[in-house]
Write a structure and sequence with these properties.
two-stranded parallel sheet, about 400 residues, alpha+beta, six-stranded antiparallel β-sheet
Length: about 400
């Protein structure tokens, strides 16, 4: 009997110890789950904050690009109007030249008939021969009067002939210049349309990225809410609390890493190079941009407008077109390039793009697809389009 009681006691004690151990195991398991959930919540919060920051940044960039597209389209429309006006002027000049040539041809016929009348021998008989061939004094006087009248008339015709010929030459020169300008305008128009298409593609890509980030943010929030509900339910069921959210996760955006390649640059070169860093990921390419306070404040530059702005920050005044910039300083060889030099690329035309060399085979400039950015000229697109022109403005 004593053994049975002892055995029973032992069994009861084992049973009780098992019952007591179960909540402890559950508590430890719940604590582990809760820690994982808290870590997930912290990570989700960090991811959502990062997504929201990037979304805000993308929205601002999309606004800039959309406005740039509007402005560039307006520029195209203005250019097309100028082209149509120039074509009209060319048509008018061609008509005037045609009329003048007809007058000249008619005078040539008159002069030819006159010459044939007095030079029957094919050029051996001239006005003097006609006068000296008089049969009498009266005939001589008559011939003198006739020849004088003809000479005066011919001189007037010849004089007018020269005037009209000069006018034709002047109009042809004007026509050639207008045609040259027209061709240049067409080249600019083609370039602008290509830039517009590139900007539109960039805009569409950014909008798609924005949509994806929004969807990701929504999914993260839904997951966070779900985890909160699970945690709340578990805490209510087990009446277990304590602890706090710990841990965080930060992410990096698409900002450029600026290489320290311009350490050997002079003070003014450094000022020029770093002037545009604040516009990286915060600007947009606009044809003709960078020439007003509004454009500069809103990061709206074309390539030459950016170069002009950057040099102005170092107190140096340069032109605002690629044509003026390529003659703004001394031409140097590519082997002698140093930070602060201008580098040129053949894009939609010769020397269509200009930027500032920063060293290490890289440059900073305003590109159509990125706005102000650092890019490599040793590989890819820019390596293929670099034309070898290097201009040194800084001494």
């Amino acid at each position: 009997m004593k053994k049975k009681v002892t055995a029973l006691g032992t069994t009861i004690m084992l049973g009780l110890s098992s019952v007591i151990a179960i909540p402890a195991v559950k508590a430890n398991s719940l604590q582990g789950q809760r820690s994982e959930i808290q870590a997930g919540i912290s990570k989700a919060n960090a991811a959502i904050s990062l997504a929201q920051s990037e979304l805000a940044k993308l929205n601002e960039q999309i606004k800039r690009v959309d406005q740039a597209i509007v402005d560039n389209n307006n520029m195209i429309n203005d250019t097309e109007k100028k082209i149509n006006g120039t074509k009209l002027e060319i048509g008018q000049l061609q008509e005037q030249i045609k009329i003048l040539n007809e007058k000249i041809e008619k005078r040539n016929i008159v002069l030819k008939e006159r010459a044939q009348s007095f030079q029957e021998t094919g050029g051996t008989v001239n006005y003097i021969d006609v006068i000296l061939g008089a049969k009498s004094f009266g005939d001589f006087v008559e011939r003198i009067g006739a020849v004088t009248s003809l000479v005066e008339a011919d001189q007037g015709i010849l004089k007018q002939q020269e005037v009209d010929k000069q006018e034709v030459e002047n109009k042809q020169d004007s026509l050639s210049k207008n045609l040259s300008n027209l061709n240049a305008m067409k080249t600019e128009l083609v370039g602008m349309k290509a830039q517009i298409a590139e900007q539109k593609a960039q805009n569409d890509a950014m909008k798609e990225e924005l949509k994806q980030k929004e969807n990701a943010g929504i999914a993260q929030k839904a997951d966070l809410q779900n985890q909160d509900q699970i945690l709340a339910a578990q805490q209510a069921a087990e009446q277990y609390g304590g602890g706090s959210e710990t841990g965080s996760e930060t992410g990096s955006g698409s900002s450029y890493v600026i290489p320290n390649n311009n350490a050997s640059a002079s003070g003014s070169a450094s000022d020029v190079i770093r002037a545009g860093y604040k516009y990286i990921d915060n600007s947009v390419y606009v044809f003709g941009g960078g020439r007003t306070a509004f454009d500069i404040a809103n990061g709206r530059f074309d390539c030459s407008g950016f170069v002009r702005y950057a040099f102005a920050q170092a107190g140096i005044s340069v032109g605002a077109s690629t044509d003026s910039l390529k003659y703004a300083g001394k031409q140097v060889s590519t082997s002698d390039m140093r930070p602060g030099d201008l580098v040129f690329f053949n894009t939609y035309k010769t020397d269509g793009h200009v930027a500032i060399y920063i060293g290490g085979g890289q440059f900073i400039g305003s590109q159509t697809s990125t706005g102000v950015a650092v890019a490599s000229m040793t590989s890819g697109y820019w390596a293929q389009h670099f034309n070898g022109r290097v201009v040194r403005i800084l001494k």
